[in-house]
Specification:
Order of helices and strands: HHHHHHHHHHHH
GO biological process, one term: transmembrane transport
Distance between the termini: 32 Å
Number of helices: 12
Pfam families: BPD_transp_1 (PF00528), OppC_N (PF12911)
CATH superfamily: MetI-like
CATH class: Mainly Alpha
Shape: elongated
Organism: Inquilinus limosus
CATH topology: MetI-like fold
Largest sheet: none
Number of strands: 0
Radius of gyration: 24 Å
Protein name: ABC transporter permease
Membrane topology: Multi-pass membrane protein
Strand content: under 5%
């Protein structure tokens, strides 16, 4: 009995992932700053109708290409629209696409990866060849091809960004599923007759969730960048609706008249992308078993 008690005293409790994540986030000044930047942009996007000083679509021939002032903090564009108001409303589109598309891609890609890894055989070969086909194209090029075929529009852009990110999630989910499927508890569940859906949703998905969450946090920044690129090329958010990408495009067409749309939108994209990258690195350090303490 004494030996048994000594053994139980040696066994340490499993680490709390949320506690590890909180310690890493709060222990790094850069990550704290990144979380604050993300929170500020999210609040601005949610409260845009109450924060924006002007209607982002309102034009005025008397206010064309005005410089920064107390009335218009970032000046006006070639149509007399307030640049700050357009940036505030543009943050809604950029953040919605940046958050929604990776989440949908994680659901679709994880489903494909788990099905391919668990069932194997012909199902695995078909899904793997489809994923390899999509991976043959860079994300931006694949997004441009699909966007050119589907056209603009909110859900079209969401579909474009989702398809661009699905292959990465599918590969990670498949690799993790192949590893988890060999574990003894999975073999025991199969031996006692547990149904396949129960095995997948109760035993496999929870054990491969950590790398999927890491990918979601890291690819939010990529989704924002891709959406801005598509809008800049005229394949994303369509004018006159504001988006950081088409604000930069409009500013480029009027560079010598007013450079403030390019400066403001470019600064916003840089801050948000950098903040999400820093936060994603913190999440990876917390959930990755190779780096987690």
């Amino acid at each position: 009995m004494a030996a048994i008690l000594d053994t139980t005293e040696i066994i340490a409790p499993a680490p709390n992932r949320l506690a590890i994540l909180a310690r890493i986030v709060l222990g790094r000044p850069a990550t704290i700053f990144a979380a604050l930047v993300i929170a500020i942009f999210v609040v601005v996007a949610v409260l845009a109708p109450w924060i924006a000083p002007y209607n982002p679509l309102a034009q005025s021939i008397l206010k064309i290409n005005q410089g920064p002032s107390w009335t218009h903090w970032l000046g006006t564009d070639q149509f007399g629209r307030d640049v700050l108001s357009r940036m505030i409303y543009g943050s809604r589109n950029s953040l919605i696409f940046g958050l929604l598309s990776p989440a949908l891609a994680a659901i679709v890609g994880t489903t494909l990866g788990v099905v391919a890894g668990y069932f194997g055989g012909a199902v695995d070969r078909v899904i793997s060849r489809l994923v390899d086909l999509l991976l043959a194209f860079p994300e931006l090029l694949l997004a441009i091809i699909i966007a050119a075929a589907l056209g603009g529009g909110f859900w079209n852009v969401v579909a474009v960004l989702t398809v661009a990110f699905v292959p990465g999630f599918a590969r990670v989910a498949r690799a993790q599923t192949l590893a988890v499927k060999q574990e003894p508890y999975i073999e025991a569940a199969v031996a006692v007759g547990v149904s396949t859906p129960v095995i997948i949703f109760r035993h496999i998905v929870p054990n491969i969730a950590a790398p999927i969450v890491v990918l979601v946090t890291l690819w939010v920044a990529s989704a924002i960048r891709l959406e801005a690129s598509l809008s800049f090329l005229g394949l994303g958010t369509q004018p006159p609706n504001p988006s950081w990408g088409n604000i930069i495009r409009d500013g480029l067409n009027n560079l010598f008249g007013s450079p403030w749309p390019i400066i403001g939108a470019g600064f916003a994209i840089t801050c948000v992308v950098l903040a999400f990258n820093l936060f994603g690195d913190a999440v990876r350090d917390a959930l990755d078993p190779e780096t987690a303490p």
